[in-house]
Amino acid sequence: MTLQQLTYFLAAARHGSFSAAAHSLLMAQPSLSEQVRRLEAELGVPLFVRAGRGLELTEAGRLLQPHAERTLAEAEEARESVREVREMTGGTVAFGTFSSAHHYLTGGLVQDFAVKHPGVRIRVIGQNSAEVADAVRDGELEAGLIVLPVDDAGLDVRVAAREGMLYLSADPKRVERPITIEMLAEAPLILADARWRQVDPTRRVIRERAQQAGVTVEPMIEVEYLTAALDLAARGLGDTIGTASVLKARGYARRLHPAAMDPPMYATYAFITRRNAHLSPATREFMKLAERRVEALA
């Protein structure tokens, strides 16, 4: 039994003939008649009897009619429920970003999307990349923009761009040359993401590089937010690590002096989704706009 067969059955019942029903549906009469006959064969009972030049419902047909009407109405309601999402006149984008993205990326991105699709609700969660990965993996978020590396189990990962990491100090003498991992191990270091220190991508890169060099990097001060680390560094309490983007966005470019890392160290930005997930049209569009901004950023 198909929705098409029920539609043809109701049209024949309403018009009292197969030919009139077919005309109302802009189709050939034999095709409609054949589908009704298949429905009768599946049910094992006739639904119509000939009455003069027209059709009348049998007892089985009269019993089926309200069920068919209700089924088609519910099917239309189901189609309507997703129409606004498909056409992006409603629904919600659920997206995650790495914690510092709201300083220089999220505001413009949300504005671009909201102007283009004013009927769609937007929920953007800025967390540590490791937490975003967990939320996408668990289905709490549809997709995310994170900094690598993260645990990619159950995720599809697509690298978008990368941006050089900088050593930042209020003392220009400390940034007269590129900073090696050995120098970093001796530096008065201030690092963000204290709560996520074991899985934070930047700390993982530093830790792996330190292990290869046979040194240990221990921050002198740990804070939760990158802006706090930048502020403390600007006050001369130590040095920190960040990108040029956040440095410019937060107005610290005049107060903190940069040095490159030796060898270079990068923030690698990537989009993540659940493996083989089917994304909503709104989330796909949001990711498309995000990709343009990330490319421009890098």
TrEMBL record:
Q: Name one GO cellular component term.
A: cytosol
Q: Which residues form the HTH lysR-type domain?
A: 1-58
Short name of one Pfam family: LysR_substrate
Write one Gene Ontology MF term.
Answer: DNA binding
Record's keyword terms, sorted: DNA-binding, Transcription, Transcription regulation
Q: Which domain of life is it from?
A: Bacteria
**InterPro entries attached to this UniProt entry:** HTH-type_LysR_regulators, LysR_HTH_N, LysR_subst-bd, WH-like_DNA-bd_sf, WH_DNA-bd_sf
| Protein family membership | Belongs to the LysR transcriptional regulatory family.
Query: Know the name of this protein?
Result: LysR family transcriptional regulator
Ranked from the top, the taxonomy reads:
Bacteria, Bacillati, Actinomycetota, Thermoleophilia, Solirubrobacterales
